[in-house]
Structure formats: C-alpha cells, structure tokens
Write a structure and sequence with these properties.
The protein has 280 residues and is of the alpha+beta class. It contains 9 helices and 11 strands. The relative contact order is 0.19.
C-alpha cells in the first residue's frame, strides 16, 4: 500500500495535472463510471454488473465523444478505469486515467502536448522521438516467432515482440503509424492508422488517436471486433449505440489520448511498482 508521505506527494502531482489542463483552457468533465454498453476491443476484458447489466468503463472515451458532438469543445477527465485480469508491477484492474480531446489537433500536436505534460510532472525535460511501427519490426522475425508459438495469432506475436522491446531510453519515444488493422478508433491515412503510444524509460504511458468521425466505418469496426471476440471465446458486450448516434450527429475533427496517471506518477516519484503510488 502507498505510504502516507508518498500519497501526499502523489496528490501534489495530481493537482499539477489538473492545473496543466485548466491553464490551457480545457473544460473538466465528470464521466460516469458505469455504462449500459461496453467497448468491443478484443484485447480488453470488462467487469460486468448484473440486474440490470452494466459495464465498468475501461475509459471515459465514448461518453466524452458524445459531449464533443454536443459542442463541448476541448475537454479533459481525471477518473478511474477498470480492466479485468490486469495485475503486476505496472498493471492494476482499477487504475487512474487522464483522458482529453483537442479540437483541430493533429496527432503530432497532441504528442507535443502529452510530452509537455509528462515533462512538467516528472521534471525530466525529455526530448521527443518518433518511431514508426514498421521500424520496430524491421529486425524482428515475426514469422519465426509465430512458428515457435503456433497457437498465437499475428497480433499476439506482435504484442509479445513489442513487450520485449525497451522504448523511451532517455527520451519520450512515440510509436506512430500503426497498421490499419490496429486502428481501433483512429482515422486511417496513407494506409497507416493515425495512432500513437508513448514510452518513457520502458514504461508505456498512453494511447492516442486522430479520432475517427465516420459512424458507418466505426460500426463496421465494432462488428469486426465482435467477430474476433467470438473466435477468442470472449464475452460479447453491447455496442454503444449512443456513441454511434453521436458520430452520426457530427463529431468535430479532433485528436484524443488516454494516459495512465499511476505510471506517470511512478516515473515522477521514482517508484518501480504501481502499488507504491495507489491504494490497492
């Protein structure tokens, strides 16, 4: 459990995070933690309640995008998120997240803002580095890895290979230009997904997109995710029709990102285990 002194230090950092967004003119919102629908991402598992069925949200994303479609503009949320089956030195099934959306921002604009936040909170003053997904795999023999693990899908082999790399050595390293099949909720441009992840000293901190605004394409991706979940024998969540309705109404061109606050605080406080920066 986090010590009393560490908790006070963490709270000071948390106030600085909120102040960072307020000084930049973003509006803080308070998204519900319970939702009648869940995300479809095959790589995530959800906590579900009974009678009536609801889901503990893995992020406030869908609700925030509904607000964007109603003209809320630049918004941020500091909240709890939940992912079933996640535990370890850098994982907890209940964790803290900062998620925000910027109207008219490109992914490059948002990457710079993420770096500004990370540098302000950690005090590291790290330079920005961008590495394309394709570059990561230039020296990795994925086919050999799959042959060693014949039960793995290509995606599982790639995830394993990524987990074995050390990114962000003395820098803020953004992995960019993901393949289209890993676009999730991101736009696709020039046959790559407008998506990024940030690593600092080997720690993955965030996942961001230039947001997809096409409701028809998003419904198609949800359907494809559900088929993957079926093949993986995973529970099938309800599709968030309110979110799709928001896209149909019209969501402004924007970029958004979800950042794990506990991991950011680990970096700032020099801790090695997530349990040292939160109550577990």
């Amino acid at each position: 459990m986090i010590s009393f002194d560490a908790w006070k230090q963490r709270q000071t950092l948390h106030y600085k995070v909120r102040d960072f967004f307020l000084k930049r003119g973003l509006l803080e919102i308070d998204a519900p933690i319970l939702s009648k629908a869940g995300g479809t991402d095959p790589q995530l598992d959800y906590f579900e309640t009974l009678s009536p069925a609801h889901y503990l949200t893995t992020s406030p994303e869908f609700y925030m995008k509904r607000l964007l479609s109603h003209g809320y503009g630049d918004i941020f949320c500091l909240t709890h998120a939940f992912r079933k089956g996640e535990s370890g030195e850098r994982h907890c099934c209940e964790f803290n997240i900062a998620e925000w959306y910027r109207i008219g921002f490109s992914t490059e604009d948002l990457q710079q803002e993420v770096l500004d936040l990370a540098n302000e909170i950690t005090g590291l003053n790290l330079p920005l580095k961008r590495t394309a997904w394709k570059q990561v795999f230039e020296k990795i023999d994925i086919e050999k890895l799959k042959s060693e693990h014949p039960d793995w899908t290509l995606e599982e082999a790639e995830d394993y290979a990524m987990s074995e790399q050390y990114f962000g050595d003395g820098c803020a390293e953004f992995i960019v230009d993901y393949p289209p099949q890993r676009a999730a909720l991101a736009k696709i441009r020039n046959n790559v997904a407008c998506r990024f992840e940030l690593y600092i000293n080997g720690i993955e901190l965030c996942n961001g997109y230039e947001e997809l605004t096409d409701a028809k394409e998003q419904r198609k991706r949800f359907s494809e995710d559900i088929e993957k979940r079926k093949r993986m024998n995973k529970p099938i969540p309800k599709i968030d029709e309110d979110f799709l309705a928001a896209l149909e109404k019209g969501m402004p061109e924007c970029s958004g990102v979800a950042l794990g606050l506990d991991r950011l605080y680990m970096l700032a406080m020099g801790k090695k285990d997530i349990s040292e920066v939160l109550f577990v």
